[in-house]
Amino acid sequence: MPFSLHFSPTPLITAPSPLSKPFFLVPYYHTLYAPKSPPCSSTEHALTHQGKQEAFDRRPEDSQTLPLGLRRDAMPSHVAVIMDGNRRWARLRDLPVRSGYEAGVESLRKIVEICCKWGIKVLSVFAFSSDNWFRPKVEVEFLMSLFERGMQEDTGIFFRENIRISVIGDLTKLPKALQELMVNLEEATKNNTRFQLIVAVSYSGHYDVVQACQRLALKAKCGLIEPSDINVSLMEQELETNCTEFPHPDLLIRTSGEFRISNFMLWQLAYTELFFAQSLWPDFGEAEFLKALLAFQQRQRRYGV
Amino acid sequence: MWHLLHVTIHLCYFAINIANALESHLISKGLLRRYKSLHISKLQYLAIVIESEDCRTSNVIELLQWLADLGVKHVCLYDMEGILKKSKDFILEKFDGATLFQENDVLLDQPLMTLEFASFSDGKEAVAKAANVLFMKYLKSGSTSSYQGEQIFTESQMGEALKTVGGNGPEPDLLLVYGPARCHLGFPAWRIRYTEIQHMGPLKSMKYGSLIKAIYKFTMVQQNYGK
């Protein structure tokens, strides 16, 4: 089934809505092409009950679309991406910075599509770091509106393609409307199982560790755990990546030729294969992604043992 | 078709490896001009991550000697299992040009290189211990906060708590990974927010020219720290 994003004035939302929140009706300028094969989440829900979820996740068309050289058994379950280079991309083309960010969103959509096709279960993207709040106010406001617009526009796609959305980061700093949209979208897609997109917004690795400590402290204070119980394993459970079955990325890709993690998932990346791509994020496409995956599959990884 | 593709890819990688080896040789002989003068002062603190299985003290000492020759003043040696930590006395004895890094040491220019030895216990385990320290302080403070959204700890408090348990050192400017996998193997995560990371390949195949190239690349980087 083709995975495509097309926009037109006619609204067509087919997915069942567990909530009655108005935002489901919001994407009125967006349309869905009727898929040729199963795919709305009610059908997928039925398949789950019949224990055929596995068959659905490995649909025949998915296994046929794997490029030559890539092994399905060695695909990473969780890929993380630092989407760097949007502003540079715009500057190189004498375009305003916002064009770079918009091009970045398109690039993200393509990579999500490829992940779904190639059987990667989780994609985490570093959309906005805690440090990014220090960018010019106009730029930050544009990014917030871009996140809001993007999530609204693609809501139908998330349901049609059975994609779960999770958001990690300090959401209290975001505009209220965006916070609400994100929380609603997480709740509405939480039962989607084909693919999970984790969007890190107002996030940093330091923040994640501190909030995990905080949660543990509150649990200990309430008597749910003993202070002496606080260990590495409990810390792991309280990190914001506990929203996924695969909290540790197998592969991290950073674009634009920079060779650092920039405060992203510091704890979770201990054994993650690091791939630093030269291209800027809006130019990062299937070919480069394939290169990263091939490099990942060729590495001899001992996971520190 | 598959075999042809396989052979082609192998030939490409072979050619790349030959080119890299040649470049490394030229760099170490000082024949490539741009690598001749390194702005080594930009490299305040260097971390070396080594796969525990590949930890050969002879290679480590040779590497340290190269770094000393280049003028690197502060180095942290890390391997997950703490093999380097256990060999610390031996390494310091065999490598004359170093002293043990003390936590309160300021990163100033000094005649001898300072060496820090770290392992997994200084990473995630230290953070868990620091979490305990923070919690005990929180209890003692008698705070009545139970609202999950309220911030009761800060990043700087975590930093201080890590210092208390001996898990907080300087943030390395550059981290070199020697091993088959391109990952940092649990190096204290709290310390590598903005650290440049370079994968150097197995320790037994280390090359002086590659080391110079990695440091040179680092000195050319401009960071904007997310701003």
TrEMBL record, chain A:
The domain of life for this entry's organism is Eukaryota
Q: Which Gene3D superfamilies match?
A: Decaprenyl diphosphate synthase-like (3.40.1180.10)
Q: Which InterPro entries is this protein grouped with? A: UPP_synth-like (IPR001441), UPP_synth-like_CS (IPR018520), UPP_synth-like_sf (IPR036424)
Tell me a GO cellular component.
chloroplast stroma
Q: List its EC numbers.
A: 2.5.1.-
Feature: compositional bias, Basic and acidic residues:
51-62
Keyword 4Fe-4S (UniProt): no
Region (Disordered) residue spans: 43-62
Q: In which pathway does it act?
A: Protein modification; protein glycosylation
- CDD domains on file: Cis_IPPS
Does this UniProt record's set of keywords contain Transferase?
yes
Q: Which UniProt keywords apply?
A: Transferase
Q: What does this protein do?
A: Catalyzes cis-prenyl chain elongation to produce the polyprenyl backbone of dolichol, a glycosyl carrier-lipid required for the biosynthesis of several classes of glycoprotein.
Name the record gives this protein = Alkyl transferase
| Protein species of origin | Gossypium barbadense (Sea Island cotton)
TrEMBL record, chain B:
SUPFAM superfamilies according to UniProt: Undecaprenyl diphosphate synthase (SSF64005)
Q: What is its EC number?
A: 2.5.1.87
Please list the GO terms describing molecular function: ditrans,polycis-polyprenyl diphosphate synthase [(2E,6E)-farnesyl diphosphate specific] activity
Q: Where in the cell is it found?
A: Endoplasmic reticulum membrane
Q: Under what name is this protein listed?
A: ditrans,polycis-polyprenyl diphosphate synthase [(2E,6E)-farnesyldiphosphate specific]
Pathway entry: Protein modification; protein glycosylation
Q: Which InterPro entries match?
A: Nus1/NgBR, UPP_synth-like_sf
What is the reaction catalyzed?
Answer: n isopentenyl diphosphate + (2E,6E)-farnesyl diphosphate = a di-trans,poly-cis-polyprenyl diphosphate + n diphosphate
PANTHER family from the UniProt entry: DEHYDRODOLICHYL DIPHOSPHATE SYNTHASE COMPLEX SUBUNIT NUS1
Q: Which GO terms describe its cellular component?
A: dehydrodolichyl diphosphate synthase complex; endoplasmic reticulum membrane
Query: Which region is the signal sequence?
Result: 1-21
UniProt lists the family membership as follows: Belongs to the UPP synthase family.
> Major location, coarse class?
endoplasmic reticulum
Keyword set for this entry?
Endoplasmic reticulum, Magnesium, Membrane, Signal, Transferase, Transmembrane, Transmembrane helix
Q: What domain of life?
A: Eukaryota
Q: Which cofactor does it need?
A: Mg(2+)
